[in-house]
């Protein structure tokens, strides 16, 4: 399936700019031909010593055409680039429209996290589609056909040669190159991927490689991969050069044929010699328009790939729409339940969550604890409907999560994840995300509660809040959740980078506000869990213990031992 | 820029070849014009028959094909040169990094180094594959053309000579202006183009707060603003090529006028000469103009070259090893630190004046608050970095007088986040072995490290593929694979950077038991976080702010060192046992 059709769809909406680019492109091409053609004619004519005024007239015309050509070229560049960037904007928006309903579930599928950077890069690389793939053939066709039409008045034969040249340079050669390009590209990508793995392992795994004396071997492997990659690049570079040279050779040859046929007809007195130079000059200039066709296959392949990657991401079946959409009750604490829920990440053999069942009554406070990799965070993803269980049911307020619109669930919960996003702007902008109608006072109070009272609402937040520390970001996220004021609290390691004392102060505020609400807290720290109604202990995707803090401590089981170890650890 | 110039000088063989190709290209350019004009002249004015001009025509065809062939050859040489340079650069980077990147991994710069080694090296390509060949062409072909013009019709030559400098001058002026303007626009452009990524990255947050739908307008607006900012810069670039075109056109126009007047009014030159210089003139100006666009591509490479050069000139503290054989006895070596200090360049991070004797077969714990220099000390003992002051002695001789292989053969290092390589579990364990390990040994090591159960639960067992930094294994499992490496190696010195939290109970227990097993036959030096490990240690090195402020057993330190008491007490809610 060719995903480029999506791109074309976005392109054709910019009719005016396309029209202007094509118009000016055509004018630039045709005036160049006219310019050189007429200079050939002029000099031939001059050989017969015509009256001076014809010459003056022709030279003036020549100048005019020269200026027209330069200006048209300018117009072409201007409008084609403007069109391109407008199209990029359209592509971004339309892509976002497709992606938005699928998020955040779709991010789960791509764990490597490079998805977003790739999307941005792919959209950028589509800028070549209009400039280098879409419209050069249009210009080529228009310029060639009109020139051939003109030439046909002088000689049918020469017109025919030019037409054959058009077919070869505009169609046959690009198609042939496209085939070769495809093979080369895939080898280059393979080589690059291998080198990239080796470089990453070399640098990140350096310590282990060094100690275990595998550095030399790795280095050799890396060199081998680098050589292979460079060889493939070299092959591609040479092929590109070859394509370019073949294209210009064919153009030269066609012009030469024009000269040969022209010379034959002149010698045979079937063509006026004064036109000979003109016709050859026309041919030479005309084929300059065919140069972009040599690089077209490469760009075509790049763009096809970029479009395929982009649109295959969003091609996903949309969230199966639930027929019986139920609304969650507003302003009311919700109960939550897992019934034998199992989930395995695609491509992995071991389930991350295995037959997990539990009941959390409305208004209860629950902590889910366990070592890293035990599946705690996946429980949160399942609960938020970001990840769909393979088996088993999840209930919120007694309603199956599949029958609840996710937006409704999210609207009715205060969520803090491990990584929370902040946008470029001010603290105020980022807090207002919780609720547009918040007053400055309310926001100040929330900042105080998370011990961020020293910040002003007008303080700048850079991209991804990189000017804030990890702890400050987490506290800001908690403040944002507190300001939202819904009745379901879902926290995933909200205070991972916050020191113990501050954590306790913040938790006290949260518990006060959430007194009658349902709260689920995922934590790998075992401090401050004394007041929880229930603690669920996870290991390897399974619940291995449940109970209140005291119950678990009395039982002297897994939780008790983890607690002992934690007491034992000096940070 | 200078780095690249120097480098391209170094490839003078290729440069000479490019020069020769450029010369022949010049010959072909002139020859093509000459033969073309000759053919037209003979048929059109001299009244030759077709067969009489045929040799000229065939010659013309040969010249045209040769010209295309030379273009290919020149480009090919450039591509080859680029490949050589990239190979050398990557090789130098690799050598550089393999000598001493430990400091870099301290600073979390590995990602940046990956990008230098992959992308920056790749970006250098166009300088050699495009810019250098083009410079060669431009420094030869126009000279030959202008020479020919002088020879055939001196006035054309003079006009060329006068007008030609306008092109580079104009290009430079506009280049400078664009640079200023584009720098002004750059921040704005970066902000607009970053906006899309920002929104995508924040999509989960936006959805959770029900604000995703409103973002379309923000994306559209920032994209359009980006377009406008970019167009501002591009407009200048387009106007510059417009003016260059005007210059070359005007110049060609002047040549045409001069020739035309002479041909018609004074009848002082022949049709042949007039036509010939008219065909040559565009070749002259085009060649000059092409340099401009090549220069543009070359500029991108220069930034990349600077990045690579910066990496290569970064000073390093190389560890030099000696050639004394490390005698392998049953008794683990005795390690002595004599006034050992380490400073990473001029700035901050330092250890100073560490004196300690780490006796054979002892369990040593390095303790201190985060940032005290614990891991640096471990790296020093391992010989991964060299001390900037003092010396480390092993069995009475400087550590660095030994053969490096002999020392590392005795050593296992288990870091907080062991790195798992792409490959099977068995491969990842086998990396610990000094020689090729057989399957039985690997299985035994796996068993000792408590990963047998995990392996059994996997379909492919030991041959299960892990990789991409060990995806699919939990933190505890990775630790146990690292332990298995150590068991396979059977070292006499074990260095262990104890993980802080997040391990499962099973791993915790295995770790404790394993360290005890390993300690039977070796010296174990642990950066310790667990009171259990600390209490078990024969000797504790207590670091604070890069200095060793106390050493001794747990009870000794509790009694003698208030800072130590504080650290233990603050954690245990005031009860130091």
TrEMBL record, chain A:
GO biological process: cell redox homeostasis; glutathione transmembrane transport
Subcellular location: Cell membrane
Domain ABC transmembrane type-1: residue ranges: 19-288
Gene3D superfamilies tied to this protein: ABC transporter type 1, transmembrane domain, P-loop containing nucleotide triphosphate hydrolases
Predominant cellular place of this UniProt entry's protein: membrane
Membrane disposition: Multi-pass membrane protein
GO cellular component, one term: plasma membrane
Ranges annotated as spanning the membrane: 18-40, 52-72, 133-151, 157-179, 245-267
Any one GO molecular-function label of the UniProt entry: ATP binding
ABC transporter domain boundaries: 336-565
Alphabetic keyword roster: ATP-binding, Membrane, Nucleotide-binding, Transmembrane, Transmembrane helix
Domain of life: Bacteria
PANTHER family reported in the protein's UniProt record: ATP-BINDING CASSETTE SUB-FAMILY B (PTHR24221), TRANSPORT ATP-BINDING PROTEIN CYDC (PTHR24221:SF653)
Name this protein carries in UniProt: ATP-binding cassette, subfamily C, CydC
Organism: Thalassobacillus cyri
Automatic annotation (TrEMBL), chain B:
Residues covered by the ABC transmembrane type-1 domain: 17-300
Topology within the bilayer: Multi-pass membrane protein
Any GO MF annotation of the entry: ABC-type transporter activity
Keyword terms, alphabetized: ATP-binding, Cell membrane, Membrane, Nucleotide-binding, Transmembrane, Transmembrane helix, Transport
Organism: Thalassobacillus cyri
Localization, UniProt: Cell membrane
NCBIfam families for the chain: CydD
Pfam families cross-referenced by the UniProt entry: ABC_membrane, ABC_tran
Membrane-crossing segments per the record: 16-37, 43-66, 158-176, 236-257, 263-281
Location of the ABC transporter domain: 335-570
Main location per the UniProt record: membrane
Protein name (Swiss-Prot/TrEMBL): ATP-binding cassette, subfamily C, CydD
GO cellular component term of the entry, any: plasma membrane
InterPro entries associated with the record: AAA+_ATPase, ABC1_TM_dom, ABC1_TM_sf, ABC_transporter-like_ATP-bd, ABC_transporter-like_CS, ABC_transptr_CydD, P-loop_NTPase, Type_1_exporter
GO biological process, one term: cysteine transport
């Amino acid at each position: 399936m060719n995903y480029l059709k999506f791109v074309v769809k976005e392109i054709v909406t910019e009719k005016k700019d396309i029209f202007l680019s094509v118009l000016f492109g055509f004018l630039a091409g045709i005036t160049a031909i006219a310019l050189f053609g007429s200079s050939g004619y002029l000099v031939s004519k001059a050989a017969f010593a015509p009256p001076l005024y014809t010459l003056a007239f022709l030279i003036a015309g020549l100048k005019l055409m020269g200026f027209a050509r330069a200006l048209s070229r300018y117009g072409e560049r201007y409008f084609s680039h403007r069109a391109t960037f407008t199209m990029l904007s359209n592509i971004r928006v339309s892509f976002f429209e497709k992606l938005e309903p699928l998020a955040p579930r779709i991010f789960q599928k791509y764990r490597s996290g490079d998805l977003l950077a790739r999307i941005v890069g792919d959209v950028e690389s589509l800028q070549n589609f209009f400039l280098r793939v879409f419209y050069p053939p249009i210009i080529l066709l228009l310029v060639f056909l009109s020139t051939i039409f003109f030439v046909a008045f002088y000689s049918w034969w020469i017109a025919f040669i030019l037409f054959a040249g058009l077919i070869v340079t505009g169609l046959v050669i690009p198609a042939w190159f496209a085939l070769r390009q495809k093979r080369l590209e895939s080898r280059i990508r393979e080589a690059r991927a291998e080198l990239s793995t080796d470089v990453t392992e070399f640098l990140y795994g350096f310590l282990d490689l060094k100690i275990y004396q595998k550095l030399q071997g790795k280095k050799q492997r890396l060199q081998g991969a680098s050589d292979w990659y460079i060889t493939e690049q070299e092959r591609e570079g040479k092929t590109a050069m070859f394509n370019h040279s073949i294209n210009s050779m064919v153009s030269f040859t066609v012009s030469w044929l024009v000269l040969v046929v022209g010379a034959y007809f002149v010698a045979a007195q079937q063509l006026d010699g004064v036109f000979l130079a003109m016709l050859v000059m026309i041919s030479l200039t005309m084929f300059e328009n065919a140069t972009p066709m040599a690089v077209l296959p490469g760009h075509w392949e790049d763009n096809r790939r970029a479009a395929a990657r982009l649109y295959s991401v969003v091609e996903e079946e949309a969230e199966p729409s639930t027929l019986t959409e139920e609304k969650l009750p507003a302003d009311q604490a919700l109960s939550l339940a897992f019934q034998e829920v199992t989930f395995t990440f695609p491509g992995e053999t071991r389930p991350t969550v295995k037959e997990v069942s539990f009941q959390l009554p409305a208004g209860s406070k629950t902590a889910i604890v366990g070592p890293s990799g035990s599946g705690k965070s996946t429980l949160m993803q399942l609960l938020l409907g970001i990840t769909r269980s393979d088996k088993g049911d999840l209930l919120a307020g007694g309603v199956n999560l599949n029958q609840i619109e996710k937006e409704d669930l999210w609207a009715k919960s205060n969520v803090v994840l491990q990584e929370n996003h902040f946008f470029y702007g001010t603290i105020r902008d980022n807090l207002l995300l919780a609720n547009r109608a918040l007053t400055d006072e309310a926001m100040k109070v929330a900042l105080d509660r998370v011990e961020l009272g020293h910040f002003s609402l007008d303080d700048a937040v850079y991209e991804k809040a990189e000017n804030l520390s990890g702890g400050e970001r987490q506290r800001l996220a908690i403040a944002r959740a507190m300001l939202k004021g819904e009745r379901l609290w879902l926290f995933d390691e909200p205070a991972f980078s916050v020191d113990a004392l501050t954590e306790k102060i913040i938790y006290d505020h949260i518990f006060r506000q959430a007194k009658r609400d349902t709260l689920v807290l995922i934590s790998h720290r075992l401090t401050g869990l004394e007041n929880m109604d229930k603690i669920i202990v996870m290991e390897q995707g399974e619940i291995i213990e449940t109970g209140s803090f005291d119950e678990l401590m009395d039982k002297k089981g897994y939780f008790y031992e983890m607690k002992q170890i934690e007491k034992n650890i000096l940070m | 820029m200078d780095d690249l110039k120097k480098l391209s000088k170094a490839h003078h063989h290729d440069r000479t070849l490019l020069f020769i190709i450029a010369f022949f290209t010049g010959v072909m350019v002139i020859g093509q014009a000459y033969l073309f004009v000759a053919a037209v002249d003979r048929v059109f004015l001299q009244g030759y028959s077709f067969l009489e001009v045929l040799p000229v025509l065939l010659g013309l065809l040969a010249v045209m094909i040769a010209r295309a062939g030379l273009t290919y050859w020149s480009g090919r040489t450039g591509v080859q040169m680029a490949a050589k340079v990239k190979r050398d650069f990557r090789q130098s980077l690799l050598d550089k990094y393999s000598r001493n990147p430990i400091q870099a991994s301290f600073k979390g710069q590995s990602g940046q180094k990956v990008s230098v080694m992959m992308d920056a090296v790749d970006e250098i390509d166009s300088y050699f594959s495009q810019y250098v060949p083009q410079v060669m062409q431009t420094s030869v072909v126009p000279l030959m053309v202008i020479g020919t013009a002088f020879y055939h019709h001196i006035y054309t030559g003079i006009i060329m000579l006068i007008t030609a400098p306008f092109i580079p001058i104009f290009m430079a002026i506009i280049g400078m202006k664009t640079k200023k303007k584009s720098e002004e626009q750059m921040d704005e452009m970066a902000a607009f183009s970053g906006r899309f990524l920002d929104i995508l990255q924040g999509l989960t947050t936006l959805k959770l707060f029900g604000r995703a739908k409103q973002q379309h307008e923000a994306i559209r607006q920032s994209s359009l603003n980006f377009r406008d900012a970019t167009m501002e810069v591009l407009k200048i670039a387009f106007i510059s090529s417009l003016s260059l075109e005007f210059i070359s056109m005007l110049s060609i126009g002047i040549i045409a006028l001069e020739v035309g007047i002479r041909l018609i009014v004074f009848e002082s030159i022949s049709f042949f000469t007039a036509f010939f210089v008219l065909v040559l003139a565009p070749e002259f100006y085009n060649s000059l103009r092409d340099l401009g666009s090549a220069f543009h591509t070359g500029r991108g490479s220069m930034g990349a070259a600077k990045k690579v050069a910066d990496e290569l000139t970064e000073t390093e503290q190389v560890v030099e090893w000696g050639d004394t054989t490390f005698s392998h006895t049953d008794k683990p070596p005795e390690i002595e630190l004599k006034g050992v200090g380490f400073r990473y360049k001029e700035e901050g991070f330092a250890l100073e004046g560490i004196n300690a004797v780490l006796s054979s077969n002892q369990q040593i714990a390095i303790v201190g608050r985060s940032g005290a220099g614990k891991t640096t000390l471990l790296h020093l003992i391992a010989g991964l970095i060299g001390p900037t002051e003092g010396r480390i002695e092993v069995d009475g001789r400087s550590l660095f007088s030994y053969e490096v292989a002999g020392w590392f053969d005795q050593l296992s290092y288990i870091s907080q986040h062991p790195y798992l390589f792409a490959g099977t579990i068995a491969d990842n364990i086998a990396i610990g072995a000094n020689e090729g390990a057989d399957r039985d040994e690997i299985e035994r090591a796996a068993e000792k490290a408590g990963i047998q159960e995990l392996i059994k639960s996997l379909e492919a067992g030991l041959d299960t593929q892990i990789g991409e930094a060990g995806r699919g294994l939990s933190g505890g499992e990775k630790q146990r694979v690292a332990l298995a490496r150590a068991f396979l190696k059977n070292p006499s010195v074990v260095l262990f950077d104890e993980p802080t939290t997040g391990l499962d109970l099973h791993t915790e227990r295995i770790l404790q038991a394993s360290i005890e097993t390993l300690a039977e036959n070796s010296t174990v030096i642990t950066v310790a976080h667990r009171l259990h490990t600390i209490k078990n240690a024969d000797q504790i090195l207590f670091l604070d702010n890069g200095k060793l402020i106390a050493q001794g057993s747990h009870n000794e330190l509790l009694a003698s060192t208030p800072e130590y008491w504080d650290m233990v007490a603050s954690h245990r809610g005031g009860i130091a046992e």
